[in-house]
Amino acid sequence: MYSEENFLMIGNTRWHWANKVKKDWKYFHTSPNPIEFKDKDYSQLTWASVGPIPEDIKLCPSKEITLDNVPLNNLPTNLGIDRALSSWSAFKKQSFLKSKEQDLIVIDAGTILSVTKVSNKGEFIGGQLISGFSLQLSSMSNRAMNLETPIVKKIPTETFQYETHNAMIRGSMNALIGLILTLFEETKLPIWMCGGDAPIILNELKNTNIDINHSPNLVLEGMIDVYKKINSI
Ligand SMILES: Nc1ncnc2c1ncn2[C@@H]1O[C@H](COP(=O)(O)OP(=O)(O)OP(=O)(O)O)[C@@H](O)[C@H]1O
Ligand SMILES: CC(C)(CO)[C@@H](O)C(=O)NCCC(=O)O
């Protein structure tokens, strides 16, 4: 049985969970609709979703966290709840830092890499969306007869790659790195990053002068914070 202190974020590739164990939060990721949870009672979970919800799981509609629950201004009605929650979370974290006077940028390097700019007053400004790393690789092989989705063991470093699979990997990674470098050059704003590809992207950026706040659980932390606000905890 779940207690009320269990949270689920349904993404497009994975499901993301937060469980309170004694006083500590434990964050983990599973495949969608994990077989090991098939007998679990989902009705007590606080949840939000941007991905498909299987019909056989019984989430409670009144326990859904929606955009109306997120205390940022100017949110478009169709904005992904993951973007709203990570933005709220980063905005709140930055409000305790010296950089609180500055606007901020949130990058969620997931299935889709989303960029979201939030003003120092907590207003949604806008963003960018681009296919995430795995999706770039799989979409190339889906649409080009001679390309196969590579298995990524490591990211090759040289700009010009001899092997096809390495050329696909280097090109896809450069698309993401290039986007981030351009954002930083144009704005010089603090960047907050989460998502499944954040570690490899940060590794690629380690020799640059971009200072990124890696905060892997921004979305779930935002959900927990919003839940506490709604329930005055
Ligand atoms: N164990 C893993 N399974 C799947 N993807 C992974 C894994 N580890 C890292 N990744 C990377 O994470 C990315 C997906 O990120 P993440 O799991 O955060 O997405 P998601 O939250 O399911 O999607 P969304 O962006 O819709 O919320 C993929 O591009 C992939 O390269
Ligand atoms: C962009 C994604 C897919 C990122 O997970 C999600 O936030 C979503 O479905 N958004 C809806 C459209 C938008 O945020 O502009």
Automatic annotation (TrEMBL):
Signal peptide feature range: none
EC code: 2.7.1.33
The entry's keywords: ATP-binding, Coenzyme A biosynthesis, Cytoplasm, Kinase, Nucleotide-binding, Potassium, Transferase
Localization terms from the record: Cytoplasm
Cofactors, names only: NH4(+); K(+)
EC category name: transferase
Pfam entry (one): Pan_kinase
GO MF annotation: an example: ATP binding
Complex and partners: Homodimer.
Name of this protein: Type III pantothenate kinase
Source organism (scientific name): Prochlorococcus marinus (strain NATL2A)
